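Recall that a protein's primary structure is simply its ordered list of amino acids. Everything else, from secondary elements to tertiary packing, is in principle encoded there. The following example makes that idea concrete.
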Amino acid sequence: MTESDVLLETFVPDRPTITAAVRLAGRAPSVHNTQPWRWVFDGTRLHLYRDNERLLASADPHGRKLVISCGAVLHHLRTALAERGWHTDTVRLPDPEQPDHLAAIEFRPWPDAPIGVHARARAIELRRTDRLPMLPPRNWNELVHAARMLANPHDIELDVLDADARSRLAIASQYATALRRYDMEYQTELHWWTGHSHVTEGVPRSALVSDAESARVPVGRAFPSAPHSARRGEVEDQAQLIVLSSADDSMLAWLNTGEALSAVLLECTVAGQASCALTHITELPTVRKTISSLLADPVVPQVVIRIGSAPDGEVPPTSPRRPVTDILTFE
C-alpha cells in the first residue's frame, strides 16, 4: 500500500460507516415521507442528489419542499457522521450546470465533536412527527434560545408566534385546506402518498389522525382521516408555533431551511418535546403572505413547526423508510 493510499483511508470513512450513516440519515423528515433523495459515494466524496421522480407535482410544483426535505437529510447525515468521528466539509449546489446535485461532502477526522452533536445524533431514531393535540412545551425559553442558535448558522431566521398570531395562522391554515378540498389533482396526490400499510414510503395509516383528533389541532395539514379515534381526548392543543424563514426564496435558501429544520427538530427531541413540521400553509402565495405579515422582518416564511409536550411521554408510531440500497450507490 502506497503512502497516498494510507492517507486516503485515513481521511475517508469506509463503506460500512458510509452505509450506516446514510441509513440513519434516512430517518429525516420529508414532505409526505416521500424521501426524495439519493446518495452517490465516489470513493472520496459523498454526493447528495434530489430525486425528481418523487416530486409532488400538485403540492410542490417548483420543488421547494423537495429541496427542504433534502436539506433535512443532509443535516441528519452530517450529524450521523459526526457521531462516528467524522467532520463533513460540505459544498452546497457545487455545480450550477447540475441543479439536481445538491451537495458534495469531503471528510476529515473529528474525534472531539461537541456534546450537543452527539445528543442530536442519538435523537435521530427517537424523533417522530406528532400530529395529535399537544400540551404546552416545557422549558420553552431555553428551547427557543437553543433552536435559534442552531438555525442561525444556516442563515435561517426563527420567529415565535404569539397568541394573536397563532389565531390568525389557524384561520390561514383552514383557508388553505378549503382551497385544496376540491383540487382533484392535489387530493389524488395526497391519497397516493398516505394511508397505506406495509410500504417503505409515504405516511402510513398508523400516523394519521381521526377527524375528532384533527378538530382539536387548529394548525395542521388535512390528511385523509384515520379510523375514528379520540386519542388525547382531554387535551386541547396548546402547542407553540415557530416559523423558519429565509432572506430569499432560492434553492440554496430551501436547502438551508431543511438543514435548520433538522437541527431544530432534533433539539426538540433531545429536550423531550413533541414536534410537527408543517409546510402546507406555505404552499399557497396568499397564505404565505399572511404568515409574512405576522413576522417582524421582511423575510420569506418556509416552514412552520408545532412544538409541545405529549402526555406521559406518549410516542407516535414510526413511519417506514426506504432500504439503504435504494438510495445509496457506490462508484
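The two ends are 21 Å apart (CA to CA). The chain has a mean pLDDT of 93.
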